Amino acid sequence: MTDRADFLFELGTEELPPKALPLLADALKTSFLAALDSAGLQHAGCESYAAPRRLSLIVRELAFQAPNRSIERKGPALAAAYDANGQPTRALEGFAKSCGVPIDALTRVETDKGTWLSYRATEPGQTAAEILPVALTRALDELPTPKRMRWGSRDAEFIRPVHWLVALHGTAIVPMTLFGLAAGRHTVGHRFHHPGSIELGSPADYLPRLANTGFVLADFAARRDKIRGQIEATAAPLGGRAVIDDALLDEVTALVEWPVAVAGQFEASFLAVPHEALISTMQGNQKYFPLVDADGQLLPWFITIANIDSKNPAAVRAGNERVIRPRFADALFFWNEDRKRPLDSHLEALKSVIFQQRLGSLFDKTLRIERLAAQIAEALDADVPQTRRAARLCKCDLQSKMVGEFPELQGIMGRYLATHDGEHPEIAQAQDDYYKPRRAGDALPSSAIAQALALADRLDTLVGIFAIGQAPTGAKDPFALRRAALGVVRILVERQRPLDLRQLIEQAASGLHAELPEASQHIPAVCEFILERYYRYCLERGVRADVFNAVAATGCTRLTTLDRRIQAVTDFLALPDAEALTAGNKRIHNILKKLETPITTAVSAGQLVEPAEQALWAAINQTAPQIEAALGEEDEPRALSALAALRAPIDQFFDQVMVMAEDAALRRNRLALLGQTASLFNGVADLTLINPG
User: Interior CA angle at 530 toward 526 and 536, to 5°?
Assistant: First the structure.
């Protein structure tokens, strides 16, 4: 008999939550392997499988027994083990008893601190049959399932009722009981195609027997790939391309065991409705995959994934077509109703919609956004009247019937309705664009008007929520302020808008003064919060933390400038002289920070007696104008490159000059010289914060 064999575990349940299924499978695998490793049970890897009614694992080449373990327990020192008469003390007797051995079974261990008594033994490794039930119980208990349920008369709890249990190590059943069920070798097939049990001889039978006999594809990834392939193959003859959203594909994969793609059609008259609304209801409500043509225009077709290979696919198609029509009819009705009145007619109704109790209504917020967006638009050389008009309209679509039915289309419907009303194209587009970025990696608003609107909306929310004491704490962020802050960062940096962040926050606080006079007190906190998002944003782009800190230490709050300086410092550190220069600058900093009083005297050229200090002073006078000119032109790379001329003079100065000279006048002058040198290093970043190497 071999000492290893594959191990299969399957937990059969009622239908599991589809959106949580991949997470549950990954968590089960991670926790179970951690438990095996903790017990020392060796294996050659593990695959996890997940379908609507099952979570399963196959552990490759799992050992039947954990290796023996050498154990050693340190007892009392020899001096404390025996009394003056050579008799065992209570400490020794107690130690031997706790080890379960006689005193003469203990060994003596010589150490640099003397002789000690010790107990050494070899403990047999546990068998897999002993380890596996404990490891599985622990793994199942650790699954991220906040809401568990009971079923029947049992006390067991799980996310869904459990109906069968498989545990095979090689060809043998591992004896265990979980959720009141004894493990066996029988799994269950598809609920309709093969509702009966399927006997498994070994783990190798699992996937093929489920697929060939049970009509179940247990492998989540393989099932997902098959669904994608079916969708694409079904779409091709219809002359379109399926819109396959990855999140929806995952959800559908978690809903079916035996996927079969079915195409359906709807009346072309429904295409008069904004396509985003039709796509939203197809994806969100019906889990359908829409079809578009080569230009991205919606076609009157969809593809659904059935969980059954029907003998009458026409009936499946007809049923799905019948379900979608009422939803589309509702959308068409709401769209027609919304176009009967102009978008701006909803402005007055915003007075009755509370944004936040202390921050007023959406109408109040709209007025604040209008004021702040106009200030930002002026700084961006955007059309201020158009920006004001776009701001006036930006919350109006929230009162439309379409957004009432499809809340996820806020902004998008504003664009459609503003276009229908004949608003300027940039004003109409801004209704949608100012919501961007809606999620991580999303596109940014393209026009200056939309950017001004996006910044104004987010900054007003950030300052307002901070001012009422609702800043994010830990993982809690009910107002999505982290996302809002990241949106501000991305717009300023990626759209290269040279606006000062602190000034923007001050303007937002000023607009809130009527509702919250204390808003101005929270300006530093909001600024720090957004800069923290910028820090995370930079780290994700590969920026070194010490480089960021060095640049941020200058106190600059113009993100485009910070971004440019970060790149300049990164490039500077690649220069041959950079390491020696930063080391010399740190040495200067360390000398100056020890002074009890700051340097107030200017450098006296007449008191520079040593050639090395004269050379450093000459280099400073030559380099300072170059650095000043480069900084004035916002050419940070040139400013940092100019510092290279100081490397040799700084090295010679420290090699040949005694800074802390006995002569007080010489000492003050040399410290002033170092102060002048240090000031040249801080124009772009505080290089003393750069880590060596």
Answer: 145
353: helix, coil or strand? Answer: coil
H or E element that contains 283? helix 275-284
- Taking a C-beta distance cutoff of 8 angstroms, is the pair 619, 583 a contact? no
348, two tokens: 């007055």
* 330 vs 158: CA distance, rounded Å: 39
Average pLDDT, the chain: 92
Q: How does pLDDT run across 140-153, given as a tens digit for each residue? A: 999 998 788 998 88
How confident is the model at residue 1, as a pLDDT? 45
In this predicted structure, the answer to whether residue 216 has a pLDDT above a threshold of 50 is yes
C-alpha distance from residue 207 to each of 16, 219, 223 (Å)? 20, 8, 12
pLDDT band (50, 70, 90) for residue 58: very high
Instruction: Give the 3-state secondary structure of residue 444.
Output: coil
Mention the CATH class of domain 4-66+127-212: alpha beta
Name the fold adopted by 577-689: Isoleucyl-tRNA Synthetase; Domain 1 (1.10.730)
Domain coordinates in residue numbering, the chain: 4-66+127-212, 69-122, 228-338, 345-542, 577-689
What does the pLDDT read at residue 642? 87
pLDDT for residue 538 is more than 70: yes
DSSP string for residues in 573-636? TTSTTHHHHHHHHHHHHHHHHT-SS---PPP-GGG--SHHHHHHHHHHHHHHHHHHHHHHTT-H
Q: Is 475 helix (H, G, I), strand (E, B) or coil?
A: coil
pLDDT of 324-375, one tens digit each?
999 999 999 999 999 999 999 999 999 999 999 999 999 999 999 999 999 9
- Measured CA distances, 527 to 371, 503, 558 (Å): 20, 10, 11
Mean pLDDT of 494-517: 94
Note whether 167 and 176 are within 8 A (CB): yes
Q: Is the pLDDT of residue 448 over 70?
A: yes
Residue 83 has φ and ψ, to the nearest 5°, of: -85, -170
Give the gyration radius of the chain's Cα atoms: 36
Q: Are β-strands 114-123 and 162-169 bridged in parallel, bridged antiparallel, or unpaired?
A: unpaired
Q: Are 559 and 541 a contacting pair, CB within 8 Å?
A: no
Pairwise pLDDT comparison (147 vs 232), residue with the higher score: 232
- Identical fold for domains 4-66+127-212 and 577-689, yes or no, is no
pLDDT above 70 coverage of the chain, percent: 99
Which of these, 64, 60, 57, lies nearest to 45 by C-alpha position? 60
- Answer yes or no: pTM beyond 0.85: no
Q: Which fold has domain 345-542?
A: Hypothetical protein af1432 (1.10.3210)
Pair 224, 249: CB distance under 8 Å: yes
Q: Please, which residues have CB within 8 angstroms of residue 184's CB and are 6 or more apart in sequence? A: 164, 165, 166, 167, 173
How far is residue 257 from each of residues 159, 214, 495, 580, measured CA to CA in Å? 19, 10, 46, 64
Using DSSP's 3-state secondary structure scheme, residue 260 falls into strand
Please name which of 271, 269, 315 lies closest in space to residue 290, comparing C-alpha atoms: 271
CA distances, 653 to each of 664, 673, 675 (Å): 18, 10, 14
Q: Which two tokens stand for residue 521?
A: 């007190």
Q: Where residue 235 falls among pLDDT bands split at 50, 70, 90?
A: very high
